[in-house]
Structures are given as structure tokens and as C-alpha cells.
Design a protein that fits this description.
Helices cover 76% and strands 0% of the residues. By secondary structure, the protein is an all-alpha fold. The chain has one domain. Helix 1 runs antiparallel to helix 2.
């Protein structure tokens, strides 16, 4: 009955993904390639978690 009030579990992960990618771009611009690679890896891990949640479908 109150399904419309349920939060999307992937929404926070998407926001975190966008934040990590923005940080990665900033690190790359400053020349910190090692930091860029780490942030990009973290973002890729989040992207995998998002894909798994979306593949599972609505609860």
C-alpha cells in the first residue's frame, strides 16, 4: 500500500558513484594518476553493486 514511499536502494550508490568519478577527474587534472586509478576502481566497484541491485529487480 505504501510502496511509493520506499527508497530506491541504488539511488545512494548512484550519488556516491557520481561523487567518486568527480573526485577522480579532479585528481587526474592535478596529475595524481595513482589517486585517479584508485577512485576509478572504487567507482567501478560501486557500478557493479548498482548493476546487481538493478538486476535483482524491485523488492
Amino acid at each position: 500500500m505504501f510502496g511509493f514511499k520506499k527508497r530506491d536502494p541504488a539511488a545512494k550508490l548512484r550519488r556516491d558513484y557520481e561523487r567518486l568519478m568527480a573526485e577522480a577527474v579532479d585528481l587526474q587534472r592535478r596529475g595524481d594518476i595513482k589517486g585517479f586509478a584508485e577512485k576509478t576502481r572504487e567507482a567501478a566497484d560501486l557500478e557493479d553493486r548498482i548493476a546487481k541491485l538493478e538486476a535483482a529487480g524491485p523488492s
